[in-house]
Amino acid sequence: MRKWLALTGVAVTLTVLPGAGQTPAYRAPRAADGKPNFNGIWQAVTEAHWDIEAHAAAPSPVLELGASHAVAGGLGIVEGGTIPYKPEALKTKQQNFTNRLKLDPEIKCYLPGVPRATYMPYPFQIIQGPKFIMMIHTFAGAVRTIYMDEHKEAPADSWMGWSNGRWEGDTLVVDTTGFNEKSWFDRAGNFHTDALHVVERITAASPNHLQYEATIEDPNVFTRPWKINVPLYRRMEKNAQIMEFRCVEFVEDLIYGHLRKQPTK
Amino acid sequence: MRTRAVVLGGVVGLLLASVPMQAHHAFSAEFDINAPIKLQGTLAKWEMINPHSWFHVDVKNPDGTTVTWMIEGGSPNQLIKVGVTKTSLKIGTELVIEGYQAKDRTNKAVGRNLTFTDGRRVMLGGSAGQAATPDPGGR
Amino acid sequence: MNRRLFSTVRLKPDTTSMMAIGVVVAVGWLAAFPVAGQAPVPRAANRNTAKPYVAPRTPDGQPDLQGFWTNATYTPLERPKGVTKEFFSPEEAIEVMKKAALEENEQTEPGTVADVHYDFTQFGLDRSQGAMAVNLRTSLIVDPTDGRLPPLSEEGRRRAAERAAARKTRGGPHDTVQNEPLGSRCILMDRNGPPALAGAYNNDYQIMQAAGYVMILTEMLHDARIIPLDGRPQLPPNVRQWTGSSRGRWEGQTLVIETTNLTDKFAFQGASENMRLTERFTRTADDTMRYQFTVEDPSTWTRPWSAEVPWKKTIGPIFEHACHEGNYGLYNTLSGARAEEKRAAEEAAKKGSLK
What pTM, to 2 d.p., does this model score? Predict the structure, then answer.
């Protein structure tokens, strides 16, 4: 009897242990339609919102903000390290960087675009259903609709693009086109045109984090497609919620101040 | 019934007076009621954006130079619901625009009437016939 | 100088085409009516055999309110003066809607303020080209029963006077961006509320339900409200937001949303930041939802007041309403006002130098 139990014990153990070099994939709880459940409040924890390439700490372009708005150094989220710009496009990027105080759309409370919205330093909420998956971001209340059921071409260009999504096993694959040319990838002036095409792959890696990868393509700007990789962490505090960030009010004087009526003498 | 019709008319008039309409005054603040324009030109770009879409139209001056006018139209949201897309209206299409010029006297105007050169309406046709052709659907 | 570059004779819409619009409109709306839960409708068959509608259920057992909806309406918030009854007859209501639709489609007169506008009908933005629930009510306000806002409290009167006085000191409507309406600035619109009230166009919403949450996406400003249903407390009292803090729960078939923590910057119908709003969503048919709301604000009104408007199912998609990003109009309005002042100043200087 004991020998038999010992044998079965070993057998059970053997089937559970992974083979050499492999980690068992995490299996997320299912939503009602049998798909992995990504509902929740998520946030990237990186310095990529400053610059998606690896970079050292650097001063803020605004003197009065001193160290509060200085650039924190970061390891970057670009696979391979460098964004493969065409030579002319790299010059544009450098001009963007030099003039970022005037040109960065984030400063004017413009919608952040994709994938920048994903790694902004604020939480976003996923509301998931079989036909639509919504991503609702803190910054400017930006909303992305991912069409899971009926896939159409983008009817017109937009800041957040037109997203068609599908499941490949347990990975959510989101194919987005229909971007305008106006958003940036970060505060360092990394940019694109309206030919931008982003394919995101999102997989649950543990109960409280998602693995997020995006392939970025724009033949007007880059010599080849390139990828970014960034974990998305679940906001764990009780009663976490997305707060309002209606920043239009904060930037009106910046944008329209020069059109104010001057007092007559 | 005559009595009922009179009552209805009165009621409807009052009802319509209190129905909240888009702030027309905002437009007559942006565009000059005393500066009507009529232009003809080719479509260079249709910005299908909110809160209002903008048609960029290249207009030839008598001296042969070309100037691009920005013509304000409506939100594209309802058009998109009936299948109109950014390819429905072809670049290079000849358009006739009647409207009012911007108060700041730049080459901007609100497009009161948008037609093709044959008089058909550019967007939804109403009783005037077909206009911008909705796409039959995605690939 | 008034230069007429085009014919002043506008084609009046011919009777046939107007009738055509009327018929199309009536057919579309008639299909939606009668709206369950409103005044008794003279359809005997309905009354005797009608079972109360039960909405389908979401996978976690909640009434399913999901889909695209519109709250477009011709019904005003307050009952017009001279109208005393609470409900139109079905025939009267259809007549009212038909007439309003025809007026919306009418050509405007050149040289009038109404003419300084793009043509709604070309863009499908007139309400008769979209879905709309038939509403037999003569006002959206149902309580007080006279269909009008209740009297202001003493504090409400005082605040209204203070606000009016403050408006007088801030200059003209186009002196500075902050003097422009919130909608022109792309900060907040009637559609957003809360409560959600329709405007002239783009009155669409998308509702989604996930475990523990309801999401309401408002077309205007592409604004998503996320309402938790887990009974958590409202935000702390010092945290005020334009759309407040909302918490939801189910009462039978009805989704109840309580909102507090508003600011006095939105001032719905003159309300204060102490306003408490309760909204109720009940699906009354496959294609109709009853939306009710109650406003409580003793620092503004002597008593709470309530309104109700039927929402109708419609189709998507809801395209990105990136209002602030595309707001050329606001820029043009301000620069136009400065240009006009400059022209007026130059004219005055010329006149002065001729003396």
Answer: 0.88
Instruction: Please tell me the predicted confidence (pLDDT) of residue C353.
Output: 75
Q: Which residue has the tokens 């395209």?
A: C319
Domains of chain B: 21-128 (2.40.50.140)
As a whole number of Å, the end-to-end CA separation of chain B is 55
Helix (H), strand (E) at residue C22: helix C15-30
Most B CBs within 10 Å: which of C8, C99, C115, as the mutation test of the B interface?
A: C115
Confirm or reject contact between A158 and chain C (CB < 8 A): yes
Q: Residues near A117 by Cβ (< 8 Å), separated by ≥ 6?
A: A111, A124, A135, A137, A139, A142, A144, A160
Other C-beta atoms closer than 10 Å to the C-beta of A167 total 13
- CATH superfamily, region C59-86+141-322: Calycin beta-barrel core domain (2.40.128.20)
- For chain A, which domains are there? 28-55+74-237 (2.40.128.20)
Select the more confidently predicted residue: C118 or A25: C118
Provide the ipTM: 0.90
Residue of C nearest to B125 (CA): C122
Q: Which tokens is A25 given?
A: 């994939």
Render pLDDT for A109-161 as a digit per residue (tens, 0 to 9).
999 999 999 999 999 999 999 999 999 999 999 999 999 999 999 999 999 99
Provide the 3-class DSSP secondary structure of residue A260.
coil
Residue A132 forms contact with C (CB below 8 Å): yes
Q: A258 CB near a chain B CB, below 8 Å? A: no
